[in-house]
Amino acid sequence: MNTYTSRPVVLCLSGHDPSGGAGLQADIEALLAQGCHAAPTITALTVQDTVNVIDFRVLERDWVLAQANAVIADLPIAAVKLGMLGSLEMVEVVQEILQKLPGLPIVCDPVLRAGGGGALGRDEVGLALRERLLPLASIATPNLPEARLLAELPEGTADECAAKLLPYVEHLLITGGHGDETEVHNRLYSRDGDQHSFSCPRLPGSYHGSGCTLASALAGRVALGEAWVSAVRSALDYTWRTLRDAEAPGRGQYLPRRLPLDIS
C-alpha cells in the first residue's frame, strides 16, 4: 500500500449546507481541487436549498471543540479556513481553537448571509467576529455587503470599509460582483499600505457558494506555500472558472462546479 503525506491539511470550521452548494461541501471540493486535504469541523447545521436559508442551528460548544481537538491532535494542520459561525458563543469557541494554532495562515470568510439573502447569524455576530477573530486571522474575504456590515458603514465604498477594517486584520480581500458593473473588481488591501486590484468579466446569473469556494481555494493555496498576492490571484481565477462552468440542479441559484467531471 502506498502512503502519501504530501497533501497539506486545512482545518475548516463552518456550517453544513444540505444542498451541497456552500458550507463544508464547498470547502472540501475546493480544497481537493487545490491538491489539499480538508479536515471539516461542523459549527452549525442549516436548512437551506439553492433558493435561500430556511433555518439553522449552531452546534453545542463541546461538540465543536471535540471535533477540532481530535483533528489538531492527529493531523499536521497547514492552514485554517473559517466560514459560518452563527452565534456569539461559536465566535468564542473558534477563538479558543485558533489560540491553539499560533502562526498558521488563517482565512476568515465572514459568512453572515446566504446568497439568497437569508441570515446566517445576527448582526452582533459580525461585530464579535470583527473584534475577536479578525485579529487572529491572516486575511478576511468579505464581499462588499459583508464588509459594510463589519465596518458599520451601510453605504461605504470598498476603500472606506478597508480603512475601517485593516486595524483588525493584516490583509483584506473585498470582492465585487454585487452591483450592475460589467467588470467585477476584487480588491486586496494590506495593513502596510500595499493594494492590488483584480478584475474579471461579470458572469450572468446568481451563484450559491462562491464565497466559500474562494476562501477555501485561498486557504489551499497558502497551505501549499504560495505567497498572499499570488494565492489571491490563483483563488480568484479558480473561483471564476467554477462559476463559468456552474450548473443549476435545483430551482434557485447556480452551484459552482469545483471539481472536473472526470477526476480519475
Automatic annotation (TrEMBL):
GO cellular component labels: cytosol
Kinase listed as a keyword: yes
InterPro entries with a match to the protein in the record: HMP/HMP-P_kinase_dom, PM/HMP-P_kinase-1, Ribokinase-like
Gene Ontology molecular function: hydroxymethylpyrimidine kinase activity; phosphomethylpyrimidine kinase activity
Pyridoxamine kinase/Phosphomethylpyrimidine kinase domain ranges (all copies): 17-253
Keywords recorded for this protein, A-Z: Kinase, Transferase
UniProt GO BP: thiamine biosynthetic process; thiamine diphosphate biosynthetic process
Pathway entry: Cofactor biosynthesis; thiamine diphosphate biosynthesis
Gene3D superfamilies: 3.40.1190.20
Listed EC numbers: 2.7.1.49
The keyword Nucleotide-binding is annotated on this UniProt entry: no
PANTHER family associated with the record: HYDROXYMETHYLPYRIMIDINE_PHOSPHOMETHYLPYRIMIDINE KINASE THI20-RELATED, PHOSPHOMETHYLPYRIMIDINE KINASE
Protein's name according to its UniProt entry: hydroxymethylpyrimidine kinase
Species of the source: Azomonas macrocytogenes (Azotobacter macrocytogenes)
